[in-house]
Amino acid sequence: MHFKSWEQYFLSNCNHFDHIDWNESRSLTPGERKTIAASLSQFQRGEHSEGKHFIQFAGSLNDESYTSTVKVFIKEEQDHAMVLGKFMEMQGMEKLRHHWLDAIFRRLRILAGLEGTVTVLLTAEIIAMVYYKALYKATRSELLQQLCTQILVDEEMHLRFQSYTLQQVYSRKSRLSVGFSRFLHKVLMAGTIVMVWATHYRVVKAGGYTLFSFARENWFEFMKCERMIKGKSSSFPVTGFLHHAIKITV
Ligand SMILES: [Fe+2]
Ligand SMILES: [Fe+2]
After folding, report:
1. Ligand 1: centre distance to CA 205 (Å)
2. Rounded percentage of the chain residues whose pLDDT exceeds 90
3. 103-140 burial, b for 16+ CB within 10 Å, e for fewer?
4. Which of 13, 114, 119, 144 has its CA 20 to 30 A from that of 70?
């Protein structure tokens, strides 16, 4: 398996939001809006990136198909920003231009080359897996729930893609260096869980999570990626897997 398969997967998934029914006239209740608005605008902002540095760093892997895969992956994340932005416009919510947490993540990605970029991205993808489940449960908007479901399906594959990439990056490093990188990633993950809880607790709590269960579910996703990175489970994009991947209990 190589990056060509991932590129084909992302290309085949380019119509991922075509099935969404946008004809929802229901407005969010004042309570839902109070819970969701600020948090959703931050995540919508976080989903959008031109990915200039990522594309630049991708060249360091000396695999042309990786660079072209990164481009279609970035397009998929931009689609997430686009559909969430469209939903926010329909609901009269303001988009965010800047947020400190998003700025920190963008700065971290730039600092440490390809490995740092992918590590930070994977951390964000793991958080997204739990956050969008919480958001799904925090709203009664069927449209927003449809968007969350599709984003979750996409993000599950992003976990696999980033884990596979890290596996490739680590294959060129010593065991000691890889061990240190994995330690740093654990520290980053733990810190991010606390920061996201502190910033987005309204949505996360409305989604039925406590700090403990939020941390536990994020850690479960992290360890799933850890096993893929270490080659102990498959990260290959299996088409049939997609429809069974996401189980959302409302
Ligand atoms: Fe996303
Ligand atoms: Fe993602």
Report:
1. 21
2. 77
3. eebeebbeeeebbbbbbbbbbbbbbbbbbbbbbbbbbe
4. 144
Q: How far is the CA of 77 from the centre of ligand 2 (A)?
A: 6
Neighbours of ion ligand 1 (CB under 5 A): 47, 77, 80
Instruction: Classify domain 3-10+28-245 by CATH number.
Output: 1.10.620.20
Over 70: is that where the pLDDT of 236 sits?
A: no
Q: Cα dist. 33→2, 40, 45, 46, 141 in Å?
A: 43, 10, 17, 19, 11
195 C-alpha vs ligand 1 centroid, how far in Å? 19
| Cα gap 48→128, rounded to integer Å | 14
pLDDT tens, position by position, 40-61: 999 999 898 888 899 999 999 9
- Lowest mean pLDDT across 37-41, 103-107, 131-135, 236-240: 236-240
Among the bound ligands, name the one nearest to the CA of residue 83. 1
> For 93, which DSSP code?
P
Ligand sitting nearest the alpha carbon of 79: 1
Mean pLDDT calculated for residue range 199-228: 97
Q: Per residue in 220-235, pLDDT tens? A: 999 999 999 998 776 6
- Supply the pLDDT for residue 26: 85
Q: What is the total residue count of the chain?
A: 250
Q: 194 CA to middle of ligand 1, Å?
A: 20
**Largest Cα–Cα distance of the chain, in whole Å?**
56
